[in-house]
Recover the amino acids of this structure.
């Protein structure tokens, strides 16, 4: 992404902030895994969205004065020859300016003084922090620590939540984001078709995963955007399955729920296929019902539709088809075979941290995820695609990833060839 993208994101946030306000953001800190080892650092997505800086322990202050003028400064880790010898080069000030378009770059040691000076200057009445916890028991982020400190040290500053504002911005995808998502779809397609081509009875789930990871690895060092769900047979009945230990036996279906990312934008795509390359009668029946339901949804989705109707209508329509096929007795029992909805937004996060809208509008991207789980028949899979809402309807961004039975069987007849 260009610096103009990040500048644009910040400007749209500033436009929503009150006058005489401070905005303080943090990229986050490393989490210790064990002894001297840390989990891979993952920059707070809103921080990345607003600055483009993908580095730990970075802070940012923007101030908006009474006339609406904005002043920005970012605080980075200082150069440190010994640390950098072990863990790689830190971003230099000029590099940070080029990436983010933020003019003033300081070192983190200056942050506390600057914040204190600004907070006590008498010029600011509001303090915007990015405050969010998915669960009340989530660990404190640097923003939560500052929130507590601000309450005691700067009680005259009214705290505002920047999180909701950023979430409302992230809801609508920009052209460059859509371009990145389309590229990510291509990479995801390569990964999924590789698994289809490599598939055979007796293959272990970890081998499918290895094929997927290997294929994504040809496109860059970043790998999958989120932990891949790849399972076979009865393991498909665990919706978020990550153990990869099972084996696909002849007649089993393989399920994947995976996504590549490009420029930090994700995809989230599920396909199901019989490991032996040929759908049997029951698999054909259920798969075509899921596919037809998905196609029905893509024909309906357009601006103005209620967001909750995506799940509601897909369950209603799928129930109707299952009833017509004699699989389901009564529509209200659809929960026996459909265990989840799937209309979650996707973007910088696979379950994108956006402000969930009531109504669908252009440039939203969300998943249409039709899962059917028939435990008695031992068949479970989902067909999950990424839906871009346009001015008049919608587009399936993942349409080119084999999804009809002939497309899947044709793909599976091909041999997997390593790059
Ligand atoms: Mn998914």
């Amino acid at each position: 992404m260009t610096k103009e993208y990040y500048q644009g994101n910040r400007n749209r946030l500033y436009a929503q902030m009150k006058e005489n306000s401070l905005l303080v953001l943090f990229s986050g800190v490393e989490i210790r895994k064990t002894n001297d080892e840390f989990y891979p650092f993952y920059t707070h997505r809103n921080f990345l969205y607003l600055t483009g800086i993908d580095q730990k322990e970075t802070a940012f202050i923007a101030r908006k004065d009474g006339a609406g003028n904005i002043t920005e400064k970012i605080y980075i880790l200082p150069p440190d020859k010994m640390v950098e010898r072990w863990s790689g080069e830190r971003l230099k000030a000029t590099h940070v300016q080029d990436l983010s378009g933020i003019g003033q770059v300081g070192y983190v040691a200056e942050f506390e003084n600057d914040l204190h000076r600004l907070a006590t200057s008498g010029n600011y009445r509001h303090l915007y922090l990015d405050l969010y916890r998915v669960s009340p028991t989530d660990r404190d982020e640097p923003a939560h620590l500052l929130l507590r400190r601000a309450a005691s040290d700067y009680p005259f500053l009214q705290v505002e939540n920047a999180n909701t504002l950023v979430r409302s911005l992230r809801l609508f995808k920009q052209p460059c984001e859509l371009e990145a998502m389309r590229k990510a779809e291509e990479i995801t397609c390569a990964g999924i078709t590789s698994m289809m081509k490599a598939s055979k009875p007796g293959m272990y789930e970890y081998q499918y995963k290895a094929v997927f990871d290997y294929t994504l690895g040809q496109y860059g060092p970043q790998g999958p955007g989120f932990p891949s769900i790849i399972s076979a047979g009865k393991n498909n009945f665990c919706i978020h399955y990550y153990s990869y230990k099972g084996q696909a036996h002849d007649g089993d279906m393989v399920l994947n729920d995976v996504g590549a990312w490009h420029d930090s934008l994700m995809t989230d795509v599920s396909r199901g296929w019989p490991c032996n390359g040929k759908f049997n009668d029951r698999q054909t029946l259920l798969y075509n019902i899921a596919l037809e339901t998905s196609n029905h949804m893509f024909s309906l989705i357009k601006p103005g539709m209620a967001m909750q109707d995506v799940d509601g209508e897909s369950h209603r329509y799928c129930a109707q088809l299952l009833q017509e096929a004699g699989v389901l007795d009564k529509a209200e029992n659809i929960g026996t075979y459909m265990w989840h909805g799937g209309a979650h937004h996707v973007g910088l996060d696979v379950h994108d941290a956006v402000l969930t809208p009531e109504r669908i509008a252009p440039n939203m991207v969300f998943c249409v995820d039709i899962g059917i789980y028939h435990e008695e028949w031992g068949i479970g899979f989902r067909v999950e695609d990424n839906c871009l809402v346009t001015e008049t309807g919608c587009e399936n961004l993942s349409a080119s990833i084999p999804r009809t039975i002939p497309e899947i069987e044709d793909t599976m007849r091909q041999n997997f060839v390593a790059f």
Observations:
- Residues 21 and 126 are 4 Å apart (CA to CA).
- The radius of gyration is 24 Å.
- Residues 175-198 form the longest helix (24 residues).
- The longest strand covers residues 379-389.
